Amino acid sequence: MRGRTAGAKGSRILRTNLDFRRYWLSSTLSTLGSQLSLLAFPLLVLSIGGSAAQAGTVATLSLVTRTLLRLPAGHLADRLDRRTVMVGADLVRLVALSSIPLVAELGELGQAQLLCVAAVEGAATALFAPAATIAVRDVVPRKDLTDALSRSQAAMASSSLIGPFLGGWLFTVDPILPFAADALSYGVSAVLLLRIGTRPPREAADAERDNRLTAGLRWLARQRALPAALLFAAGINVVSAAAQTTMVVSLRQSGAGGTAIGAVMGCAGVGAMLGAASAAWLIKRISAARLFLLIGAVWALGLAVFSWTTDPWTIGPVLIVVVFFSPPAGIVVGRAILVLAPRDLLGRVSTATGLLMAGLASLGPVLAGFFVDSVGASRTWLLLACTAAVVTVVSSVPLLRETSLDDNDNDADADADNADNDSDEDADAADEGGVPSPAGAGRAERTADEPQAGPAAPDGAGRVGPVGLVPAPVPRPGTGGP
């Protein structure tokens, strides 16, 4: 019912939606595995005699591979069966990561192989991401999207917080352990994904398909509200990436040690976890435009505070507050794409969105380093604060009268309450071999002849077409970063 908290709903979706629970467990385990090897990769390169530049090359190669393959991967995901693509990508990554312990046992481990593993895993991750987006669209009904994305955000934040620490500890026990654990996570993920029973909807016979590689970008260009939301997300991502570099440099210049710097950066993970846990509650009570204004104001004020202090005991708590408000923005953008975009463009729109949001962010560290060297850390913080403020005003003010990005599904809660008993029966039946429908409607499985959950939206041609899509919060990162 409406009085239920967001946390209770999040718990319900994991309890009653068996297919989403399988996806969520798969994503959480392999994200944690990727975070284990994220720190271990450069350490392994250095341990076998590689240079610092070679250590950085491994992560860079994975990132470049995924960036170059984003649009082609989205195109393939729109044309192929999404479960087959996801399982295949997991198996490829399983083999790639497993080769490291195997070759190490033979005493032949070298830089060339690690570069090959990074490239192969980067390519598989690029293909997995849009297929995962389609899977979420298929297994989660519209009324549960906010809560489902919140659960995914919380899992990713938790993995990003504990993964590097755990990976570093495993590396001290045995340098190969993080990679063995990462490979195992992909194997478990593939098994869980194979058990997802929801089938994709059958397309209408007369449906017109846009098979162009750039169809996702073209669709985004025709929208009114989404470009502004993407501008906000991309701008905050650039500021965030630049802030990480500025934070490390400024703290180091002030004499802070590695432990203090690590503790401060860990506060960002704490803020992300708390923000993801509270995101659904915030989104249901604040419109998207006002939420963006709030987030932008907090970022601008927080970064301004960093300009006049280098005290870790001050920076840490402020950083928690600043990052706390970031997950809701990602969820709003992700949910809007899931609701507004047609399913046949799902993969290409998600990869186009990721390219726009992550492509600009890659410039952040370079720009931060340049400005810190040129004008100093304090002025760099003020410049970042001003950038956050300008991006917020430019992107959010035009959205104040726009409601298409908001979560307007509260009225569906009553229907969800009426379906709770049937959902519980679904979960029990599934444990005995049945497969519940994602909406928990008391039937064994959604068939291809049934309409997709959620309303239809105008497709711009006077007709009414299907809705559905998502960007970055759901797909998990591979080696080398998100």
Q: How would you describe this structure to a colleague?
A:
The chain has helices spanning 6-16, 18-47, 52-79, 82-106, 111-139, 145-173, 177-194, 215-221, 226-253, 258-283, 288-306, 312-324, 326-340, 346-361, 364-375, 377-396, 412-431, and strands at 457-458, 464-465. It has 482 residues and is mainly α. Strands 1-2 form a two-stranded antiparallel ribbon. A hairpin with a 5-residue loop joins strand 1 and strand 2 (464-465). The longest helix is centred in the first third of the chain and has 30 residues, at 18-47. It is globular. It starts with 5 loop residues before the first helix and ends in a 17-residue tail after the last strand.
Largest sheet: 2 strands, antiparallel
| Count of individual helical segments | 17
User: Which residues sit in consecutive blocks of at least 5 with pLDDT less than 50?
Assistant: 1-8, 410-482
Tell me how many strands there are: 2
**Which range best describes the helical content: under 10%, 10-25%, 25-40%, 40-55%, 55-70% or over 70%?**
over 70%
Strand content: under 5%
- The sequence of SSEs as H and E is HHHHHHHHHHHHHHHHHEE
In spatial order, strands of the major sheet run 1-2
The structural class is mainly alpha
- Give the N-to-C terminal Cα separation: 36 Å
Mean pLDDT, nearest integer? 76
